[in-house]
User: Fold these one by one.
Assistant:
Number 1:
Amino acid sequence: MKLYSVKLDEHIDTLKGFAFKSIWYQSEGVPIVRVSDFTMESISLEKIEYIDFKLAKSYDKYQLKENDVVIQTVGSWQNNPASVVGKVIKVPKALNKALLNQNAVKIIPNETILNSYLFYILKNDNFKNYILGCAQGAANQASITLNSIGNYQFSLPPLKTQQKIASLLSNYDKLIENNTQRIRLLESMAEELYKEWFVRLRFPGYEEVEVVDGVPEGWERKVLISIAKLVMGQSPKSDAYNQDKNGLPFHQGVTNYGFRFPSHNTWSTEGKRYAEKGDILFSVRAPVGRLNIAPDKLIIGRGLASIRHKREW
């Protein structure tokens, strides 16, 4: 089977989101999908805004359905364009019939390409690297155009082959999600055990230990700096950033955080503040206090701090 390179705009239509007014927002009604709600994989439901049902009827054109593919087209550079521009997400079931806000575009496949295959094409690193190279902007804002999206070239197999590829990748995604749910359950159990031992002080043998001023006999109160080394991040110059894996991975904040470890999307050839492999990554800017673990040595920007125990284990 011979594959030919095609342009994306030959196989899709696009629909830009609408600039819904913030004064319309309320606590219930029809959800509004904003780029500020995008995560690296989906859409967060924590801070979703809504508009009135009657008002929403006038904007049915911008309605989303489950599994629609959406690309973020505008965002803040924040010294890390890979984290904000060109994000590709799939609309979850919970946001079926939601409305798409500005700074994002819905990608609508025609009869030549399956929506499921389209999603994996756009989630591919080839598209990510391409679209980042097309990003434009000044000051703190980056943007990509519909023309840039449409000019992306890729190989398009017959529909039956697309179905096989998308089905295989979807099965892997389901396995990953199932394993992630198991990990979350174990994390929840570990968190509850921690609370039982170190907050409620019902650790093994606690009945025989005297507690004075909230501290069990033989324990000590310590400040964090006395047992751990803290490194506050400092962002290198933006012209040192790249997506070609030159230098060390660079993380500005929590954008690329995963369940336990962050994913690398940007590298830097310069850096003054580092986290070593195994260090705790602590967010010092909103959302403050979120944690991940450094999977490798990496450069930390001003949104993060690293924490490392002073003891050599």
Note: DSSP finds six helices and 22 strands in the chain.
Number 2:
Amino acid sequence: DGFSVQELGGDLIFLSLDGLRTIAGTEKIGDVELGTLSKPIQRRIQDVVANRANITSTVIRGKSQYRIFYPTSATEIAASVRGVLGTLKRTPQGGVGFEWADIKGLKPSSMDSDFISGVEYVIEGGFDGYVRQQESTTVFTFDGENIIALYRSPDLSLGDAGIRKLMQRVILNYEVEGTIAAELRIRYDSDSIDVPQPEALDITSPGGTAVYGAAASLYASAVYGSSGTPVFRQSIEGSGFLIAVKINHNSSNRPFTLNSYQFEFTPGGRR
């Protein structure tokens, strides 16, 4: 699709029938999988391909991010329109790969981005005839409503799927930009209804951390030299053969970045 072609990370990304691909990976003879970036979200790509009549895309260079939107029609309600975000991230092994996410609520007919006097602007044209600027808000809501963000990790076997894990603690490392309000949920055995699931835990803002621009960062009350990357260590209950972390963020506060999470557990019996 011609409206999906964008340059990011020194390569061209485009949408083909089997997913989002790169020119460099596709031109390597026999390396079919190397060129396909979107295998982890293949189900979503099938929706994109099915609605490719209204595709538009752009890149956010400051975030190393590729965005593609695919409204089903010009009359579709904006709140139900989905898009796909692909962000270049460094992997734990030292390489570079894409992380994928869904986005809802934007219904662009066409998009573009570029630098003007050194400032990046992301512009979209709507089916309603209006031109809007993305990435421009000074508040952390969307049309006055809270922005709901969800993260769920894969179901982890922690070495052996046949051994029950008696969970003790979860340790989160996250980076904040200000006050946060989010919930942490531990999910056992792929959210099985036959397994008791613990109640949600509140992820608190780090006390005393000074962040420039945050209302809570007051002179003479913030801690000098404090870190904006706190560690959240929380006792958890329950047990299961598989475990996952789920984080819900539904507030008008600033966003935060989850850097890592670890589990402490005692091995139980084998099934």
Note: The two ends are 49 Å apart (CA to CA).
Number 3:
Amino acid sequence: MARSDLKALIERITRDVVRHYPKAVVLFGSAARYLKGRQTQAPEDIDLLYVGTMAPIGKKAYGIPMDLFFFETQEIVAIARSLRYLPKAAARAKMFFKDNWKGYVRADIAACLLLGDRYPEYGFLQMETEEAYRDYAVHKVLHGADWWHALQQYAQEHRGIRGLGIDKTLGQDRFSALCR
């Protein structure tokens, strides 16, 4: 699949999923790496992280398999809060044991997307396969960029347990502004 064809397909998918009023829609995986020129092989599927109150109902056929990782808003915000306040090793362990979907640890993927290139600081490891290096930090925000970038910024400012105590005292430990 040519990059221009993939871009057109992703625009079509984005138009379809934003009808369900998500907070954010994030493209990641091989399609994101392909569009950013970090891999030469065309993707075999499309991976989307969808944040909202309700997952899109029904599946359309797009001619390529699509995996939709649905997170309720408070769930992804809780992941960001863990990354911000828990000791890094504890945050990593919490993500790993949180849940498993199709052999993937969803929370790990979400954490890597939130941390961006900083995910190795937390001990997150990306998978290497014979075909490619799966770097989940590479992504493209398709919808809700302001909200997503604010959430990333919050997650990336590691404050630790001491910071949590200070922030609670000041009433700044919640990011309710991001949950609107």
Note: The mean pLDDT is 83.
